[in-house]
Amino acid sequence: MAAGHDTSANVLSWCVYLMATKPEVQNKLRDETRELGQDSEITFERLDTLPYMNNFVKETLRVYANATTIHCQANVDETICGTFIPKGTTFGVVPHVSLMTPLIWGDDVDDFDPGRWDLLSEAAQSPYAFSTFSNSPRICLGRLFAMREIKIILVEMVRNYRFLEVDGPFTVENPSLTLRP
């Protein structure tokens, strides 16, 4: 179990990377957070008035899924594509597969586009399409806390800092339990 250990910090690192490589995204986030006022208290209600911030965080989690593998156990006998899976079988689900599938997210699946969350296809609206926090009875208990924590920190970062543009690709050479930059 990796809950809360370094997942939020990793997501925030990816957010900073994306803001530094996509200044137009950073500018949209800054424009949206200005509407809150520079010194205003950030409440849950006020976070809900930031649709672009919400889209940005979800798109970051889609493109850079924190968990490299989610381990599951079959609770019933099942046959999938002709393969019998007996009850009790342990298997791994790779969130990146559903999060980067063109059949779900469209032909521009490799593009970072927070706007895609405004026009989700029927397939992308499935609770199993956005599998960053897993699904089913074993869904991440801290998912709502994590989303709010990430957004609160991002609001403060965007209010107080401008991330300078960087060029060039970035490669993760050492993936671990969580995907970190």
TrEMBL record:
<dbReference type="GO" id="GO:0004497">
    <property type="term" value="F:monooxygenase activity"/>
</dbReference>
<dbReference type="InterPro" id="IPR050121">
    <property type="entry name" value="Cytochrome_P450_monoxygenase"/>
</dbReference>
<dbReference type="InterPro" id="IPR002403">
    <property type="entry name" value="Cyt_P450_E_grp-IV"/>
</dbReference>
<comment type="similarity">
    <text>Belongs to the cytochrome P450 family.</text>
</comment>
<dbReference type="Pfam" id="PF00067">
    <property type="entry name" value="p450"/>
</dbReference>
<keyword id="KW-0503">Monooxygenase</keyword>
<dbReference type="InterPro" id="IPR001128">
    <property type="entry name" value="Cyt_P450"/>
</dbReference>
<protein>
    <submittedName>
        <fullName>Cytochrome P450</fullName>
    </submittedName>
</protein>
<feature type="binding site" description="axial binding residue">
    <location>
        <position position="140"/>
    </location>
    <ligand>
        <name>heme</name>
    </ligand>
</feature>
<keyword id="KW-0408">Iron</keyword>
<dbReference type="GO" id="GO:0020037">
    <property type="term" value="F:heme binding"/>
</dbReference>
<dbReference type="InterPro" id="IPR036396">
    <property type="entry name" value="Cyt_P450_sf"/>
</dbReference>
<keyword id="KW-0560">Oxidoreductase</keyword>
<dbReference type="GO" id="GO:0005506">
    <property type="term" value="F:iron ion binding"/>
</dbReference>
<dbReference type="GO" id="GO:0016705">
    <property type="term" value="F:oxidoreductase activity, acting on paired donors, with incorporation or reduction of molecular oxygen"/>
</dbReference>
<keyword id="KW-0349">Heme</keyword>
<keyword id="KW-0479">Metal-binding</keyword>
